Amino acid sequence: MRTVSPKGYPYLVFYRDQPGHVAVGRVLHAKRDIPQWMQEPNSH
Fold this sequence. Notes:
- With about 45 residues, the chain is mainly beta.
- About 15% of the residues lie in helices and about 45% in strands.
- It has one helix at about 35-40; strands spanning about 1-5, 10-20, 20-30.
- Strands 1-2-3 form a three-stranded antiparallel beta sheet, with no helix packed on it.
- Strand 2 (about 10-20) and strand 3 (about 20-30) form a beta hairpin.
- The chain is flat.
- The chain starts with a strand and ends in a 5-residue tail after the last helix.
């Protein structure tokens, strides 16, 4: 899973490169507790 932060927006986009497309897994506000989110069941 990769992450990008679009310039000018307070969000993080979690995605995977797939053959022929990009699969977006989640878009979270950058102030969210990301390590906590990753430990939650069904978070990814």
